[in-house]
Amino acid sequence: MRDAVNRGGVLVVTTDQLPGYTVRMVFGEVLGLSARTLSPYTEGFKNVNDGTGVSMDVRIHMLTECRLEAVDRMARVARRMGANAVLAMRFDNRQVTESWVEICAYGTAVHAEVAALPALESRQPPRRLPICR
User: Fold this and answer.
1) What gap in Å lies between CA 75 and CA 3, rounded to an integer?
2) Phi, psi of 75 (to 5 degrees)
3) Which of 72, 79, 81, 120 has CB atoms 3.0–4.6 Å from 27's, for a disulfide?
4) CA 12 vs CA 9, 63, 82, 107: distances in Å
5) pLDDT, tens digit, for every residue of 91-115?
6) SS (H, E, C) the chain
């Protein structure tokens, strides 16, 4: 399976903000597509020779790969735009023809930098309050 964390230096998140980072530039919408046939034989869900199906683990792996392919393509497009992150990533899908379906990963390409920590004020020792008796 692909490395879902390292996408060529592009951080992909489903949140609208990136805590700890400051967005310096917004490049706009970015998307990546993955297309699959609806044929269970072509996609490998069924054996062409005897018609038997594959295990659930294999099916889950194949479906996950399809989504990751769309996200990887989206991240490459974002990188070419100059982005280092994609915010608000979502998935969509639709049937293109009777035999083809597309999976789309989309989000907002941005350039984000680690937020600067606030400057520490000169610390003065706490004032002692008089004790009332």
Assistant:
1) 13
2) -65, -40
3) 81
4) 10, 19, 14, 9
5) 998 888 877 788 999 999 999 999 9
6) CCCCCCCCCCEECCCCCCCCEEEEEEEEEEEEEEEEECCCCCCCCECCCCCCECCHHHHHHHHHHHHHHHHHHHHHHHHHHCCCEEEEEEEEEEECCCCEEEEEEEEEEEEEEECCCCCCCCCCCCCCCCCCC
Residue type, 26: V
